[in-house]
Design brief:
A: alpha+beta, eight-stranded mixed β-sheet, globular, B: alpha+beta, four-stranded antiparallel β-sheet, three-stranded mixed β-sheet, 14 helices, 9 strands
Chain lengths: 384, 389
């Protein structure tokens, strides 16, 4: 057993840490004070730093990293309050797992930064339960036989303010089979509705598609259904959220500890109070454990193990650790902690959102319990 | 990064698990009900452990031990955590031997270390006093040199296993003015030394099979040759083992949690209420999932810390995290197990209530949860982050 990060990934990790420290943290203050921010402006910098598109195969312009490599980058990115995308998540988690032909056709433009895709899964009647999806995708019913027609209403679609395409998941007409189609945002019939600001500062939109048309070649994922692909997408997305949470947690702990060392109250160093020490200790324990849970879950996935539950557990634990660490650090920093001078309030909001993002923690726990009833305990594939 | 266990550690885990399941678990009820086992049973178990090579797993190979690393020991502790803690001395818990071999003279190695390794003698640690728990500067027991001897006066309490020990490793001040850093020393003291007196049996909340006593030393004359190392080395001796103790305890807690989480998951599927197995209620699912996630987190802390210690990476914060967190995690897991079992879990028929009681002291012993949280925080406030090591 060895927890040492492989040398080639340490290099990537160091690159990410340097990029975050030198390029992103200086931008953070303006963002926290409300300056408009477009994540697309970071793409050239991320490319130059060798951090862009880690999940995309090398032959398509990406870094071709293992999940462990991806989470190491996400962790460093998580240290900044800037909402940074290292290549079009979560749509990229879906598209990188499509067939070779589809990947070859779709990914180069995304990796080049010429195109970006919003992920339209959620509907008023369907959140975690995909069975409630009412959007219908009809194949061969458009103006020509090789077209599809899409009808439906989506909500909480993130990124529609800057993406140009939409990955729409719907039921194949007349069946319960879920299929997916890429649509141009400007296609006739596609109407972007009301936008709402989410807790983490990103915008999410309603989307109505009325007889929206796209070429049949835009259908992505296996022709017999994308349910498994949706689960895999969630799996990778969960791992990356968990890693981001670890990054947030680490920075929150460091921010609190640094202040505890400097700040003097009632004639003594703040950090000499056990009330403060125990907050730092509890956050540190949670973040440290979360870090290795994420690495281990990624390693399991990379090495052919069924890591669904370990990734889920890592997400649940890491996000709670980030929330707690941000909360504790805010308390230690006092009024400054909740101000826009520091990233803590953003971390707090973001971590809270992560609890329900991708797959809500409750469903992940249900899956873990269900596995236990079948004799599948966490780490059981390597350490029964 | 590689989570696969080396072949030899896989084999060792299996060996310990079989020993636990076949030899120890069947005796748990008897140990709990009588707070002890017949002497011949202990002797048989010890000899089996010796034959299997489990008794001296971590002691130096040059003295006949197994020489396994901290990761291996944590995994062994995890297996031993699946059975009552009163059996712990039977596998890789040879009190005193490592200290004697590392810091002691050839005389001490031959006369005290060797019989320990052979299972012919047993030892007990003697550190805590009424005025000295976490703060060892409060130790009042003193040794004053007189020629080739030291005269020791004082008392100890909560001394575990002194009833079965042949000698003790005794912490005393040889120079109070030099304080804890320079003035504390350890002696090997035979129990039959004149002036050595076992006092009150201090009955505790749980952990049947482990007995605690007060000890009194009245002008006790101990040969200078029984000093471990040199005067003032007490702190070094004490801290040399601190990482090991914390990791062993962390591993033990993981094993205990594993056993009782599994027990709860199995019971939940059998127990029917309101015409369905209680496993179908989300209240039960949540308890199980939370415990399972918590155990995963703790195992990560234990394994990653053990690897750091084995690789000689600074791990003060890490071992403190293990010590602070693991007993609390196990306590929560066993508590959930009891809740899922309902009144059956509270009954003495199962081991749940016994372990519930036994676990409580682990948040206190070997450095309280509070002391360890203080260590963690102070290291961070100094700017040393565990994730930077």
């Amino acid at each position: 057993m060895d927890f040492t990060i492989p040398e080639e990934l340490k290099v990537i990790q160091a690159k990410a840490a340097t990029y975050v420290g030198k390029e992103l943290l200086p931008l953070e203050k303006e963002y926290l004070r409300g300056q408009a921010y477009d994540p697309r402006t970071l793409v050239p910098g991320l490319k130059a730093a060798g951090l862009w598109a880690p999940a995309v195969p090398v032959n398509l312009g990406g870094l071709g990293l293992s999940l462990l490599g991806q989470v190491l980058i996400e962790e460093e990115i998580g240290r900044t309050a800037l909402p940074v995308s290292i290549c079009n998540e979560p749509a990229i988690c879906f598209l990188t797992q499509c067939s070779t032909t589809q990947r070859d056709a779709l990914l180069p433009a995304i990796v080049a930064g010429d195109s970006s895709v919003s992920y339209a899964l959620t509907e008023p009647t369907a959140g975690s339960d995909y069975a409630g999806i009412e959007t219908v995708i009809t194949v061969g019913e458009g103006a020509t036989e090789d077209q599809v027609v899409v009808d439906g209403v989506k909500n909480l679609v993130v990124g529609l303010d800057y993406t140009d395409r939409i990955l729409v998941v719907g039921k194949k007409a007349g069946t319960d089979t879920l299929i997916a189609c890429l649509m141009d945002k400007k296609s006739p019939g596609v109407s972007i509705g009301r936008g709402v600001e989410l807790l983490d500062g990103t915008n999410a939109f309603e989307l109505t598609i009325t007889r929206g048309q796209a070429p049949a070649s835009n259908l992505v994922g296996p022709s017999n259904g994308v349910s498994q692909l949706l689960l895999k997408t969630s799996l990778h997305w969960n791992a990356r959220l968990a890693a981001k949470a670890v990054g947030m947690g680490k920075r929150a702990v460091e921010t609190g500890a640094e202040w505890a060392a400097q700040r003097r109250t009632f004639g003594d160093k703040l950090g000499n109070n056990e009330a403060i020490q125990f907050k730092i200790a509890d956050s540190t324990i949670a973040v440290s454990a979360a870090q290795y849970m994420v690495y281990t879950a990624a390693w399991l996935a990379d090495n052919g193990h069924d890591a669904e539950r370990e990734i889920g557990a890592a997400k649940v634990f890491a996000v709670q650790a980030a929330l707690r660490s941000a909360d504790d650090a805010m308390q230690i920093r006092g009024g400054l902690g909740v101000s826009s001078d520091l990233p803590l309030a953003t971390f707090y909001r973001r971590a809270r959102q992560f609890q329900l993002e991708s797959v809500p923690n409750e469903l992940l726990k249900r899956s873990i319990a269900s596995g236990m009833y079948g004799g599948k305990y966490l780490l059981g594939s390597v350490l029964s | 990064m590689d989570l696969k266990l080396p072949y030899e550690l896989q084999g060792l885990r299996t060996l310990v698990r079989e020993f636990v399941n076949e030899q120890l678990v069947p005796l748990e009820d008897e140990l709990r009900d009588h707070d002890d086992l017949p002497a011949e049973t202990w002797e048989r178990l010890k000899n089996q452990s010796l034959e299997l090579g489990l008794y001296t797993l971590a002691e130096p190979e040059e003295y006949g031990g197994g020489g396994i690393n901290e990761l291996g020991q944590a995994l062994v502790a995890e297996e031993m955590g699946r059975v009552a803690i009163g059996f712990r001395h039977l596998v890789n818990h040879l009190v005193g031997a490592r200290v004697i071999y590392k810091f002691g003279s050839d005389y001490l190695r031959e006369n005290y270390g060797k019989p320990l390794m052979e299972g012919k003698k047993r030892a007990a640690w003697c550190v805590t006093e009424p005025s000295a728990g976490s703060d060892l500067s409060g130790i009042l027991t003193q040794a004053v040199r007189q020629g080739d001897y030291y005269i020791i006066n004082g008392m100890k309490h909560f001394m575990t296993d002194v009833d079965r020990a042949d000698f003790v490793l005794l912490a005393v001040y040889t120079n109070r003015a030099a304080g804890f850093r320079e003035g504390l020393s350890f002696f090997v003291v035979d129990k039959n030394t004149p002036g050595f007196k076992i006092g009150r049996h201090q009955r505790t909340m749980g952990r049947e099979g482990l007995h605690s006593f007060e000890l009194y030393f009245d002008d006790m004359k101990v040969p200078a040759a029984n000093l471990i190392g040199a005067e003032g080395m007490g702190r070094k001796v004490l801290f040399d083992q601190v990482h090991h103790f914390r990791l062993e305890l962390g591993g033990t807690c993981c094993g205990t949690a594993r056993r009782f989480i599994n027990m709860a998951a199995e019971y939940a599927q059998q127990r029917v209420q309101f015409k369905r197995p209680i496993s179908e209620f989300q209240a039960i699912q949540w308890m199980l999932a939370d415990a399972e996630i918590d155990l995963y987190a703790t195992r990560m802390l234990v394994y990653s810390t053990a690897c750091k210690v084995d690789n000689k990476v600074a791990a003060d914060t890490d071992t403190a995290m293990v010590k602070a967190y693991a007993p609390e995690m196990a306590g929560r897991a066993v508590d959930s197990c009891m809740q899922i079992h309902g009144a059956v879990g509270y009954e003495r028929e199962l081991q749940i209530e016994a372990v519930y009681r036994a676990l409580r002291v682990l948040r206190i012993a070997e450095g309280s949860a509070e002391i360890n949280r203080g260590i963690i925080a102070r290291n961070l406030i100094k700017g040393t982050m565990p994730w930077d090591a």
